[in-house]
Amino acid sequence: LDFNGKVLQGDRPPSSEWHxxxxxxxxxxxxxxxxxxxxxxxxxxxxxHKPIPAFHYMVAVAxxxxxxxxxxxxxxxxxxxxxxxxxxxxRKACLISNHGQIAYDDNLSKAFELAEEVxxxxxxxxxxxxxxxPKILSKKEMNKVLVKSKNYKxx
Length: 155
Prior knowledge:
Blueprint: H1 18-27, E1 33-37, H2 40-47, E2 69-70, H3 78-87, E3 93-96, E4 100-105, H4 108-130, H5 139-149
Parallel strand pairs: 2-3
Antiparallel strand pairs: 1-4, 3-4
Helix pairs in contact: 1-3, 2-4
């Protein structure tokens, strides 16, 4: 596809979600992989229009002090793309209201790992909500975590 949705090769039509894929690539030239899925726990939170607050320091893996939930718009529309790009400001992942999640990074492996982590955080947050209101880390603490996590390596 080009950035206007014109098919450049092949004979299959593009995904109905090409708007937000192209929008992310246009707004973030450093991004090489955009992953969109309807993973169970992310979708549960997205259907409740609930962002993921800083209930756990690992929320920082998505690039901010929380994981936002993009406002609802009909799937496959430019409006949804704009809502997603807004929710992704200074972030590498977000939930999409009544839809699912998006994660991106500089390669597919990293984007997939991030999407898995957001799904895991979603499950943990939903579970924590079942026993009460989780304690939320302060923005000051999350900003410390964000600085520290820039050099964090798994394994």
